[in-house]
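[Automated response] Your request has been received and processed.

Submitted sequence:
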Amino acid sequence: MTNVSDKIYFDKQLKNIISTKYGSFLESIDALSKYPVLKEYTQYYRQIEAITMYVDNSTICENGFFVKTTDAIRKEAWYKAAVRSGGNMIWQCFYNKDNNSYYLALVRRISIDDNGNYAVMVMRVSYSYLTSVIQNERTTMLMTVDNDRIVLADDREKLGTKIDIKGLNPSYGDSEQILKNVTYENRKVFIVCESFLPQKTRSTLQIINITPTSDIKRQVFATYITGIAIAFISLVVPVLLMLLFTGSFSDRILFIRTQIHRAASGDLDITPGISGSDEIAELYTDLIKMIGDMKKLLQENYEHKLQQQKLLTKQNEAQFKMLASQINPHFLFNTLESIRMKAYVCGQREIATVIKLLGKSMRSLLELDDNPQPLKSELDFVRNYLEIQKFRFADRVDYTIDVQNGIDEKILKVLPLLIQPIVENAFVHGLEQKEGSGKIDIIVNRQHENVLVTVKDNGLGMESEKLEEVHRKIKEAGGKTGKSIGLSNVNQRIKLYYGESYGIRVDSSPGTGTTVWISFPEQPVKNQNILGKEW
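Generated structure:
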């Protein structure tokens, strides 16, 4: 409300309306109808119930927002306080004669011109909004202004009255008072009074919380009982679980030990007896598998030597494939890092850099999912790809990446692999077969409420017939042949996620290169048709 008050205070159009002397009643109505600002404030901000401007212009018509100042209004204490404030905001407790109730309002004197003319603004706080703040409170909540009358209470009959609590001292500015075992309405209560000075105002508001002592004792007792129960459960339950676990663990270990002794004595007829998915069950499963392999090897001893060798070879191949399939990405990344460090130590820093970029690219691909990611991640992936290509082709390849119009790469999110396939197409089909140097320019800028990504190369380009074929395949959902594989997939993903109004557009000519534009909204609305410029 203080921010709205500042906007009204510096509103030149409002001051012009108030200072104008109107020649007729209709002229005044027409001028006021062209100024809906005060009405919009009351509609858009549910904290504001009404805004009234008290003016000295006798030619202005009253419409609920503009009221002529009378001698009776000038005698009101709140009006005098506003005039004395010199343009500073103050909070006042008002009495509404229409419904016989009190309400809280922000009052401010607004200078109209350099001649000393002014108007007084009264911005009334919505009482329903204030009560919504305390409606779920279990304690009694009161609000006063400058230690005067109550403007907010859970009991409307208290509005307009003054607080009578023995020991509660008047306070101004930011402070806190705590009263224990105070008698209020014939009950022992605990009182916390918070006083604070709202921003940009000179009036102190007091929020008083009144809690019966009996309620506090009851809550403390309940908390005490709950704590004892939790402590008891925390002690008993772990002991019981430990006993159950150790008993089950011992039985299962003993069972496994018995089976191992049987196998060691030559009895290989072991049947499954332990189920589950923990380490012991996995150990027993491995034991059964090992014994099964032993039985298989013993039986193979009776077969022909050549057949045994063939089976052994196949077994070794299977084991090798099994081990190879268990190599996790961390082994691969660690291996690449070791190669990179070796190259770095040997002075091959360019090779070390390329290996590092390759590792980053592979890690990005492995960690990729279907969720949108920051634009920075996508551009870093593209940058790594292009740096690797520069290493392959030396000075034949160059590129630029330009993010314009204040787009925040860390906040703006895009679908994964949205730009990289386009860049790869530009390189493979545009620059790889070109004689001489080639360049790829990537530009990201804002176009109204959309984002436009431009990928431009100076490669071989395409004939008009080939360009028409590419356009056709891009529009075909699920197209999987030809040179527009990446373009078609990217286009379909954009339309499925952002809407039919977005996608990609391609332009090319022989000898000059190819340009691809990617269009998508800055704020995506999933599963909706988004209205916008057709692509």
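Summary generated for your ticket: Residues 133 and 141 are 10 Å apart (CA to CA). DSSP finds 16 helices and 17 strands in the chain.
If you did not submit this request, please reply to this message.
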